[in-house]
Amino acid sequence: MSYTKTTEQASNYDHLEKMSINKLLTSINTEDKTVPGAVEKAIPQIEALVSKIVDRLKSGGRLFYMGAGTSGRLGVVDASECPPTFGVSHDLVIGVIAGGEQAIRNAVEFAEDSTSQGWKDLKEYHISKKDVVIGIAASGTTPYVIGALQHCNENNITTGCITCNEGSPLAITAQFPIVVTVGPEFVTGSSRMKAGTAQKLVLNMISTTTMIQLGRVKGNKMVDMQLSNNKLVDRGTRMIMEELSIDREQAAQLLNKYGSVRNAVKNYGTKEN
After folding, report:
1. How crowded is residue 44: how many other Cβ atoms within 10 Å of its Cβ?
2. Comparing C-alpha atoms, which of 160, 130, 154 is closest to residue 56?
3. Is 112 one of the annotated active-site residues of the chain?
4. How far is residue 231's CA from residue 214's CA, in Å, rounded to a whole number?
5. DSSP labels, the chain
6. Of 147, 150, 176, 152, which Cα lies nearest the Cα of 163?
7. Catalytic residue among 31, 40, 47, 81
């Protein structure tokens, strides 16, 4: 099927090397301002996918992000932030990138061009129909991702995608496609820019909304966050102080004893205290 990749179309700007620093910055910012509007148009698609994810995770499933290059790295970042932010296990949201761990920092040549490797990588996690797999590719043509989703479809595994090209092979393959059309990039074809920003925004929306629906936020607080540094310990202490109207010393003792804001608040006032 023939279609036009808007992410590959010529930039609306030219002679970039002749622009001043201020002009470059303001022009990039002007383009970036269009991204949230494009994401807004995709909210119905995002909602449909998130509803399915919540249902699957409540039934014991997992969420997989998979992609290559920038798209793969964005998935890995979002997955890696779920445990410390929401206190979930590291195997609930999993980021898979073409080329493996080394591809997070360094480009792995031709890793994205295999139509079979993505499915092989998923099988290492004993993927099942309880799970959801989201393919991430700005172009919507990455063989590694498309091949994996095709195999998932054949095995009754729920598939979604995040892409920036309408009518792309990836959008057609995914059961729950999310298409955010951001148009040409400031630097022609540099989809790490607007397309990458759009993908990051959508990933934020997917993971955060899912975790709230799973009960991992109380009020507006990250009550299950991992206390992995002094800043977070201080934040947790203040959250307990506010919730229970107690002083800092008592709140710190509770947090130290129970290990999370949720457990500290839950157990406050019991005989153990």
Report:
1. 8
2. 130
3. yes
4. 25
5. -----GGGSPPS---GGGS-HHHHHHHHHHHHTTHHHHHHHTHHHHHHHHHHHHHHHHTT--EEEEESHHHHHHHHHHHHHHHHHH---TTTEEEEETT-GGGGTS--TTGGG-SSHHHHHHHTTT--TT-EEEEE-SSS--HHHHHHHHHHHHTT-EEEEEESSTT-HHHHH-SEEEE----S-SSTT-TTTHHHHHHHHHHHHHHHHHHHHTT--BTTB-TT----SHHHHHHHHHHHHHHHT--HHHHHHHHHHHSSHHHHHHHTTSTT-
6. 176
7. 81
Written as one letter, the residue type at 153 is: N
pLDDT grade for 5, boundaries at 50, 70 and 90 = confident
17 in catalytic set: no
Report d(CA 161, CA 146) in Å as an integer: 10
Active-site choice (112, 166, 185, 243): 112
pLDDT tens-digit map of 61-73: 999 999 999 999 9
Q: Judging by beta carbons within 10 Å of its beta carbon (0-12, 13-18, 19+), is residue 66 exposed, middle or buried?
A: buried
Per-residue model confidence as pLDDT tens digits over 205-264: 999 999 999 999 999 989 899 888 999 999 999 999 999 999 999 999 999 999 999 999
